Amino acid sequence: MRRPLCLLLLPMALFAGNAQADMTVRGGECKVESDYDLSLTERSVILTRQSGTPRAVVLREGRLFVDEQWVSLGKADSERILTFERGARSAMPEAQGIGREAADIAFTALGGVAEGLSSDPVSAKAKLDKARVQLDARLARSVTTTRFDGRELGEGIGDAVKEMVPMLVGDIVGGTIRAALSGDAARFQRLDNLDARIEAQIKPRAERLEQRADRFCQRLVELDRIDASLEYRLPGGQPLNLLDATYLPKAGRTVAAQAAAH
After folding, report:
1. C-alpha closest to that of 2 among 254, 246, 259, 236
2. The predicted structure's pLDDT at residue 121
3. CB–CB of 245/251 below 8 Å?
4. Within 10 Å of residue 174's Cβ, how many Cβ atoms?
5. pTM for the full model?
6. What is the distance between the alpha carbons of residues 3 and 38, in angstroms, rounded to a whole number?
7. Which of 16, 17, 68, 229 has the fewest C-beta atoms lying within 10 Å of its C-beta?
């Protein structure tokens, strides 16, 4: 079963733990899926999966290794493999940056809520800081300049936010009830325009991140186009099909490597 790479996940659907393959970026939609986990060495781009055939694919300086052997490629395919390698290598640092920025924006929003509404902002901040440290550790494992694990990335952000939201909601509701019973006017004043203040704080960063995600998605579509254009076929006649990527701009025109001839 093909699964989402979860590279560009900014929407709150992810933060609620619903890692979707379809994402909205700058009014468009991006869908990126692959059966493979990706890692890099100094010389190779390595794609592996737990089940299916092939289980392992290695791209090395224009050469292609499928499962247990190097395969024969024509000149055009060798050039395509080399271009794919270069694109994958240049994409990894950007994937890392997007993942970390998405996590930081999520925690900035949660921190704003905690500061403005929590009955114990100091305690709430301490819990957020602890959750962020745990998330950073997961991000360090899932997204590096040489390794990408989309499932770990999506689950890491989703799990961290799912853990914190119930705590914050309970704290806010309880504090609000106590404020109403005690006549704490200052607490209600903090509620005024809180959402607008948080939005003003994170909106510029979110928009910049969406623009990065938009451009990044189109880079992945180009990798898919290269993958789809390979003349090489598996022993059963199937295409290699390392990933599927589709970008639908706001104007409605689909940019998809699936349209290329397999």
Report:
1. 246
2. 74
3. no
4. 13
5. 0.68
6. 13
7. 68
